[in-house]
Write a structure and sequence with these properties.
This protein folds into 2 domains: 75 residues, Calcium-transporting ATPase, cytoplasmic transduction domain A; 87 residues. The chain is α+β, with helices and mostly antiparallel strands. The longest helix has 44 residues. Helix 3 packs antiparallel against helix 4.
Length: 189
């Protein structure tokens, strides 16, 4: 459907929320930085008849046909891709596995530390006798175990990333060293 003749001046910047095909153009300039990142004005003519959603008309006149609105426009498709859930990549799967392994190892070390300290505590009670003040030591052992877990779990992710990147780099190096093509360049001087 053809729209009416639109007139724009430099005083008023009109933002276009649809994608359009320009049919008749008279000195039409647009700011397409929202979509393309280009900061300078782009002159529209028969060689560049398309305007994307989110662009601004800075000057000129034109007659147009709407080609895309909302999620059917380029801007809408980009925004919908940002909000959709994606399947995790193989690297993300490996990182999650390594982080889970490190977390489980941290919990195991915390439990072993608590058990070892508790055994030493029981041995000392058997040697020196029971005293109510020694109950505080048992609470301290528990706090040490919790501290180990609190340190191991957040530190597991950076360690997992480092290990995964080192492993991937080693695999890429092996692949490219086997499949490398060497080219000698000779410069005429």
């Amino acid at each position: 459907m053809l729209s009416q003749l639109m007139e724009f001046t430099r005083m008023v910047m009109v933002c276009i929320f649809v994608e359009i095909l320009l049919l008749i153009v008279s000195d039409l300039k647009t700011d397409e930085s929202a979509m393309t990142g280009e900061t300078h004005e782009i002159k529209k003519d028969s060689r560049q008849p398309f305007m994307l959603s989110g662009c601004q008309v800075t000057s000129g006149t034109g007659q147009m046909v709407v080609t895309g609105v909302g999620v059917l426009s380029e801007w809408g498709m980009t925004l919908s891709k940002l909000t959709e859930e994606r399947d995790p990549t193989p690297l993300q799967d490996k990182l999650e596995n390594v982080a889970n392994t490190i977390s489980k190892a941290g919990v195991a070390v915390a439990v072993l530390t608590f058990v070892a300290l508790t055994i030493i505590w029981i041995v000392r009670i058997a040697q020196f006798g029971w005293q109510w003040e020694r109950l505080n030591e048992l609470v301290s052992f528990f706090i040490i175990g919790v501290a180990i877990i609190a340190v191991a779990v957040p530190e597991g992710l950076p360690l997992a990333v480092t290990i995964a990147l080192a492993y991937s780099m080693k695999k890429m190096y092996a692949f490219y060293s086997e499949n490398a093509i060497c080219i000698d360049f000779v410069q005429d001087g």
